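Need a sequence for this fold. Nothing fancy.
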């Protein structure tokens, strides 16, 4: 089967899920065509089953905003008709589902029928897509997709509630390759950053306001009063300066390390004692799943899909958004008791196993088969 995949090519979760999905499908014999504005970051090698087509948007002085959807629709038309693609799978509704619908219409005019699968990832529904500027077009393109999937039960409920959508939405969670992570368990060099008995607490995100990174620091501050620890901040984004200002004002600079966008995330995670994710919104929480796969317990909020992933009292703890005291005391509970920490570590890993790539890919294969039968 030939599958076209449209996604954001960046480090963000939706791009990572789409890229890993395409790579895995290509290994299983599917011919995969990525169509996006630059080569996806996790797509390091192309092969006879793995192709990449770049969408170019030429500069023109008249345009205040470059019409990316238009360029994407045209590119989709070209790639789909040239390579005889069977199914088009778009990740993140904005503007991908809309551009896919337009491409489908153009193809139809030329006698070519193609089913469209749209996967909703989170902020396309809970934040951006919900804005009145976009809502009618997002609602329309979700309704016009042949199959719609989303990454958690919570995101499905939000999609129904925010957009009044009644059609079927299938839940297919994020996934990880558990074998890859398991093979790293023994390689983790504890204390490569910490001194003595210091605990390592880690946060990974794009530092957008909805990640609440000041909460990350405040939780750490409280923990550090009772348990000597270091906070590792992985990633980059708009709230980094705010975080650095807070650290300066509160004399915490020496306890918090910013590592930026590193490729060593797994190595950092597996040397860590605890993962913090106090997000305001999180449709699934792929970064928390990656931590769990490396046996790192998670202290998070109970927002969105996080409560489905991080089982309260099992893989870690969940609290209300902004409840810094509760998250700090949960972190202290896990970190202060060696045998409890060991128990949480193994429970986190057991929970992560539910999301193994081998279990999730067949769910996508099933919908591709369904899609093929539509036309
Ligand atoms: O979390 C982010 O800021 C990145 C964002 C994205 O759109 O790439 O991630 C979303 O999709 C991921 C993959 O499905 C989910 O694991 C994340 O929870 C989700 N982020 C939010 O809902 C905020």
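Here you go.
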């Amino acid at each position: 089967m030939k599958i076209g995949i449209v996604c954001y090519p960046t480090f963000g979760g939706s791009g990572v899920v789409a890229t890993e999905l395409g790579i895995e499908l290509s290994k299983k014999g599917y011919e995969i065509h990525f169509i996006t504005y630059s080569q996806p970051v996790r797509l390091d090698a192309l092969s006879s089953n793995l192709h990449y087509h770049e969408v170019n948007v030429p500069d023109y002085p008249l345009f205040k905003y470059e019409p990316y959807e238009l360029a994407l629709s045209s590119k989709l038309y070209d790639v789909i008709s040239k390579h005889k693609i069977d199914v088009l799978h778009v990740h993140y509704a904005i503007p991908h589902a809309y551009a896919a619908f337009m491409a489908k219409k153009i193809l139809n005019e030329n006698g070519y029928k193609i089913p469209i699968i749209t996967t909703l990832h989170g902020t396309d529904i809970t934040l951006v897509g919900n804005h009145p500027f976009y809502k009618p077009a997002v609602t329309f393109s979700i309704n016009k997709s042949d199959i719609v999937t989303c990454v958690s039960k919570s995101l499905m409920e939000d999609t129904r509630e925010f957009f009044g959508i009644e059609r079927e939405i299938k839940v297919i969670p994020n996934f990880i390759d558990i074998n890859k992570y398991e093979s790293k368990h023994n390689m983790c060099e504890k204390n490569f950053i910490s001194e003595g008995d210091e605990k390592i607490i880690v946060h990974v995100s794009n530092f957008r306001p909805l990640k609440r990174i000041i909460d990350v620091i405040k939780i750490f501050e409280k923990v550090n009063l009772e348990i000597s620890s270091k906070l590792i901040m992985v990633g980059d984004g708009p709230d980094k300066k705010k975080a650095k200002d807070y650290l300066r004002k509160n004399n915490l600079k020496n306890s918090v390390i910013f590592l930026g966008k590193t490729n060593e995330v797994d190595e950092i995670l597996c040397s860590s004692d605890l993962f913090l994710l106090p997000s305001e919104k999180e449709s699934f929480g792929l970064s928390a799943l990656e931590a769990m796969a490396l046996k790192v317990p998670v202290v998070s909020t109970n927002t969105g899909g996080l409560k489905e992933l991080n089982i309260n009292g099992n893989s870690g703890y969940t609290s209300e958004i902004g409840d810094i005291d509760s998250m700090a005391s949960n972190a202290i509970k896990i970190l202060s008791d060696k045998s409890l920490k060991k128990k949480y570590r193994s429970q986190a890993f057991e929970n992560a196993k539910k999301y193994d790539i081998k279990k999730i890919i067949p769910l996508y294969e099933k919908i591709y088969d369904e899609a093929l039968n539509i036309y």
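For context: The chain has 15 helices and 13 strands.
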